[in-house]
């Protein structure tokens, strides 16, 4: 196949099948090669002589085989998009030469091995590696990618600690590490990611306390969130003469507007679980979405009151950990929260009535803890929550639970508070009693010494006599 003048070939969203090119094509001028959403099979075609290639999209096909090393020679390549295929093997080290790359999406394949530590393109904006079999730690890949907005490595076999260098990614807005084998503490360096809006560390082996500095993250919303690249919005319209095959029919168009196929902004998306369902957020929905998911780890300690400062967060999931202590009343500061899941922990005490002020709350669960007392009044959003929101807490009572609170049960909250006060008084009493006993012991010890030792007694009386004489002379 020889088309030396062809610059753009778009065959997207058709029912084409079979092998893409049976022989090596001669396409030296090719810049855009988009064959997504078809039924192509076989290996990735050899486009090594298309050195000016800027965009390669083979997504949503049945392509198999390994990622070829010649892709690393495409120094102008800005978008490499091949999700939802059957690719296998490791990510070639040759990819470290893709300095112009803005978008890498090779998600939902069968890729394995570790991330090349040298892979860190300066221009990189969105990375989607989820749904593969990648192993090993997060190496120093991406450490130079300061414009990185999305890092999605969910559903792999990555391990080790979350690296401290992640705070260097000052533009990071979406960090999705869900369903891996990360361990250790959640690094406080995450709090330095000033543009983060969606943070998903769920289903790992993370331990320790929830960082107290999380309230320092601004969780910006709107265009300033950093989820989109400014350059992808202000690219000039580019037009070429080319054949355009699109949407299951063939059009012969003399001008193709490449703004219909933007490089970076079309892959600004995030899959995030909230409100008991998993959704893909993109476009305007992604603009306004903010959330934290730390569920299904091994986190311990208490929920700090500072977490109530996250007034712009819409989803917070701390479920399936080993958190203890009470639910802070300060969580009423989560003014925009829509989904709050604290279930399957070891939380105790009462549910603060202040939470009824959360008028945006749609999904709420404190199930399977050690909570007690009366549930919050059935007002505002809390009037919509059913018994399953409180299940597994046998000491809770209220109308929705069909358990009438006795006078004693209604006073559980007051009893817990009084118990704390009584403990304080008890400890104070013990302190004073021990001090008094020590003082009496000293006096008895001195008296016994004077009684049994005549020399000490004589010196003591002499000392008292001198002291009285001195005082009288004043």
Which class do the helix and strand fractions yield? alpha/beta
- The oligomeric state is single chain
Q: What percent of residues are in strands?
A: 25-35%
- Annotation, overall tally of beta strands: 30
The helix tally amounts to: 5
Low-confidence stretches at least 5 residues in length (pLDDT < 50)? 223-255, 259-265, 413-435, 466-474
| Biggest sheet record | 15 strands, mixed
Fraction of helical residues: 10-25%
Radius of gyration: 33 Å
Strand order of the largest sheet: 20-19-1-3-5-7-9-11-13-15-17-23-25-26-28
**Could you tell me the mean pLDDT?**
82
Q: Shape, please?
A: elongated
State the separation between the terminal residues, measured CA to CA.
Answer: 121 Å
How would you characterize the overall build of this protein?
The protein has 474 residues and is of the alpha/beta class. The chain has five helices and 30 strands. The strands form four sheets. Strands 20-19-1-3-5-7-9-11-13-15-17-23-25-26-28 form a 15-stranded mixed beta sheet, with no helix packed on it. Helix 4 crosses helix 5. It is elongated and about 95 Å long. The N and C termini lie far apart (121 Å).
